Amino acid sequence: ALSDSSADLGGRKPHFVPITRLEDAQAIRAAEFHPNGQLYAIGSNSKTLRICGYPKSHELRSLREDHVPHQPSVLSKRVKHHKGSIYCLAWNTTGDLLATGSNDKTIKMMRFNGMTNELEGGEAELTMHDGTVRDMCFMEDLSNRSSLLISGGAGDCKIYVTDCDTMTPFQALSGHSGNILSLHTWGGAMFVSGSQDRTIRFWDLRTRGCVNLITAPSASGKGPGSAVAAVCVDPSGKLLVSGHEDSNCMLYDIRGGRIIQTFQ
């Protein structure tokens, strides 16, 4: 949180105060806020899934710069949730579905009750991937008002589209030749993927294929770039930002088809 005393910065850098601190026996690989902003899910190498509450407003108002971080409120916890490490997490836009991906090559999807802050019932397990599931994102199918899960990772380097009502994968999109490291959607039928093969691909579910391909630039401007570790598109769908394993970042004009800026 931003300290109140930093509201009038006077040219100084903002000062952020850590509020809570969660420690796990092993590396924490994924954290994702619920759409309502009041809680978040955490997954780790210890195979444990936690859902934690965000601090209450009165706690934030009383923050001091010497605040000592405390353990967050753990609302729900599942140990040995996967047989392997939890690599990624995703909530759907309404917050009633939570998906987790793992290096055990599976995805688990659960219903979440926002009134009780509890995971409900059993879990659906998806086994179409033949390698580590590295990233996922939900899209909304406006034609039948259902959620779709987009997932990708290692192995066959395919991106799978799953109908969350039937828990059935119904599309497998090919194109990448390296591990898929990042996925992002910004609404509608479009999403973007970043890969170890040094490319960024734009996909349109209406055409069931790749509609645009960008090759990662190198930090020096000469030769090929490096693996695309992260991708994100602004809500208007005009600008792409990508992060690469050589510490290079790129800002890209999607409609103009040009690199605006690269920086480290």
TrEMBL record:
Transmembrane segments: none annotated. The keyword Nucleus does not apply. Keywords: WD repeat. WD repeats lie at residues 79-109, 173-213, 221-262. InterPro entries: WD40/YVTN_repeat-like_dom_sf, WD40_repeat_dom_sf, WD40_rpt, WDR47. PROSITE patterns: WD_REPEATS_2 (PS50082), WD_REPEATS_REGION (PS50294). This is Uncharacterized protein.
